[in-house]
Amino acid sequence: MFAERVFKEKELPCRLVGVGHAFRSEAGSRGAEARGLYRVHQFTKVELFAVTEQEQSSTMMEEIRRIQTEIFTGLGFPFRFVSTIYLIQEIHPAFSVLDMPTEELGHAAYRKYDIEAWMPGRGDWGEISSTSNCLDFQARRLHIRYRPVNCSSASGAVASKSKGLPFAHTLNGTGAAIPRLIVALLENGAQLNEAEQVVGLVLPSVLRRFWLAGDTLGPYARITWADSPTA
Q1: What mean pLDDT do residues 73-82 have?
Q2: Catalytic annotation present for 205
Q3: What local confidence, expressed as pLDDT, does residue 89 receive?
């Protein structure tokens, strides 16, 4: 979309949202913990993208993270922020924002946040979202640049004709990975009796207008809609 593009400085930051389908050939190859909806061959997700000036990318990364945490707190998940993946919190349900260490970064990312939710069925935290700041790694490959206001050279539409223009920075994040959100909502909202049978399900009231079925799940379980279902 932006290959060979030269942005005007006033056009940045450029923010985009897209719905896409992801495909994983390795689904089910990581043992029993990957069974079910947590790791599937195909899933739908909402992606967040941004193109910024070089000085804007750190601020934009925090803006994307705030959007993500607003989504998950809106679904009733309280959250915590930790600076390393190796810290584990015993209080749950919740979701965690992890500032990932360098050994956990992909080759394109300068910095990455992972967001994990407590998933009782797995007995562990599971990733539901992430945000990456790639600096100019992708922009160099795609020749995405921008023209600063104080640049006196003539304007041009193709980066190859604009020697010396700075490369933009690119960022991406997941707004909602649908299957894993379903896992987190169902497992944290399930209500069990003494025999560990599901007798009810508590879901966030913000989702009620999208619910197409009734408020019962089989002959014994009923859905309860709450403003803070996992609190």
Answers
A1: 70
A2: no
A3: 36
- Residue 162: the pLDDT is 46
Q: Which of 33, 47, 53, 127 is catalytic?
A: 127
Higher pLDDT among residues 102 and 230, named by residue? 102
User: Among 111, 116, 110, 112, which residue's Cα sits nearest to residue 129?
Assistant: 116
Residues contacting 140, CB < 8 A, separation 6+:
167
Q: Look up residue 180 and give its two tokens.
A: 């894993």
Q: From the candidates 57, 96, 129, 130, which is the catalytic residue?
A: 130
In the chain, % of residues over pLDDT 70: 81
Torsion of CA 101, 105, 108, 112, to 10 degrees: -60
